[in-house]
Amino acid sequence: MDEELDSAAPHIRVAIIGAGFSGLGAAIRLAQEDQDDFLVFERAEEVGGTWRDNSYPGAACDVMSLLYSYSFAPYSGWERTFGTRDEILAYLIRTTDRAGVRDRIRFGHRLEQAQWDAEAGRWQLRTSRGEWTADVLVLGTGYLSEPAFPALPGLDGFTGTAVHSSQWDPSIELAGKRVGVVGTGASAIQIVPSIQKQVAELTVYQRTPAWVAPKPDKRISALQLRLRRSVPGYQRFRRLFNKYGREIVVALLSKPDLMRKTLQGNALSHLHASVPEGPLRDALTPDYVAGCKRVLFSNSYYPALTASNTELVPAAVGRIDGSRVIAGDDERELDVLIFATGFSAVDRPVAHLVRDAEGRTLAAHWAGGASAYLGSTVAGFPNLVLLMGPNTALGHSSQTVMIEAQLAYLVSALAVLRERGARSFEVRREVQDRHDAMIRRRFDGTVWQDGGCASWYADASGRNPSIWPSTTTRFERLTRSFSPSDYLLTSVSARALTPSQKADR
Fold first, then answer.
1. So what's the pLDDT on residue 504?
2. What is the mean pLDDT of residues 9-31?
3. Which of the residues 4, 5, 124, 456 has an alpha carbon 20 to 30 A from that of 324?
C-alpha cells in the first residue's frame, strides 16, 4: 500500500466490492451458506449498481425479466416481459431487505486501493472511509460502472447542458429544446423514442449503425401472473425455458452465414418495414454481420427517427464550439447534448486499484490483454475472485446466469479452503493460459471475430477480452466446483487476530 495500514484495522473473512447484481448476489449466497463474516463496500448510498445509476428516460432491460433476476430470489410480479429500470431497481432493493444482508453493506465506501499482503496472507483494503483486512477479496464492480466520454475538443466550453446517460439529471429541461444524442447503442435506442415527442428538435449522431430487431415485449397477463404465483414449479419452468431457448443463439453467433439468414434477416426486415427506402434507411443499414456488435431490440426507435422533428447525422461528433456541435460537414446549435456512449468496459478502472504483493496493479498484469481463469481468478493475485471478469459477457443471454455460476464457484472455493485448512488459493499460470487459449480458439470463425466491425467487446489490439464464446450451460458446468489441482494452495497462518481487530466491524 502507499501507506501502512493501522495494525488494528478490522478483519473480515470476505470483502465484496460493489452492491450491484454481482456483489449483492455474492452477499446473498454467502448468507444462504451461513457465512456471515463478510462486508460489502458500496460507493453509493443504495444497492443497484448500473440499475441505480442509469435513470435516463426509457431505461429498461433487453433480457426477459424471468431470466434477468436471481434464481435463488425469484419474483413473480414482473409487469412486462422485459423489466423497466424502476422495476429492476425495486427488485434489487426488495431482495436485499428480504435476504437480510443490508446490515452487511457499508454504503458510501469507494475503494481506493487493495493490496495482497503475502506475509500475512490477506488483503489490505483502503476505502474512502476506512481500512480493513480480508482473507478473500471479491470484485463485484462489473464492466458497466464507469461512463466513457469521448475526448471532444471544446466539450468543456459547451454553453448548453451536457450529460452522460448513466449520470442522468432528472432536472434537465428537455421540452421545447434542441437536443442532440451522441451514440446509437443500447442506451440511445431507449432515450431517443422516450424524448422525441417532447423536444423541439432532436439530432442523433451515429458513427456506426446498429442492427435493431423487434422487441417481443408485452404486459404479463393476469392468467400468467396467477400461474407464476400459485402453481409450484411453473415460474422455474418458464425461466429454464427462456434460458435454454437463448442458447440456440450461440449457434447463430458461431456461424456468420447462418446469422445472416436468420436474426440479421429479421432485423433487416424490421428496418425495411419501419423506414421508407431512401438515404435514412441506407444510413441505418449496417455493413457488418449482426452480433459482431450487440444486437439491439426496439419497436419505437425507428419510428422516432422518421419523425418530422428528428434528424440522423451519420457522422461522429468531431468538436464543439460554444453551442455549436460539428460532426463531419454538419454544424448546428444545440441546447442539450446527451452522451449515450457507453462505459469503460475493457479498461476497467477497478483494475488500477488492485495490487499484487509487489505493488503491481491488475491493470499492469493485463497490459497485454485481460484474462482470468473462468473469468474469476488471476495468477499472481491469491484469494481474489472477480465476478463478471474477462470473457464472461454475453451477446445472447442473461448476465445473471453467468454471475450465479461464478457465485457457485466462489462458494465452492471457500468450502475447499475451509475443509483443507488452507490460507490462500492462487490459480496456476499454466491453467489460466490454457483456459485463455481455449477461448481464443473458440472465437475462430465466429461473428465476434469475423463479423467485420469494431466493437466495445475488443481492446485496442483487436483482442476480445469481453465475450464468453460458448453457451451459459458450458460455463455452468466448468464452474460447478472448485478444483484444487488448478490452484496453488498455502497453509493457514498461525497468526491470530487481536480482540480489537475482531470487534467493531
1. 44
2. 98
3. 456
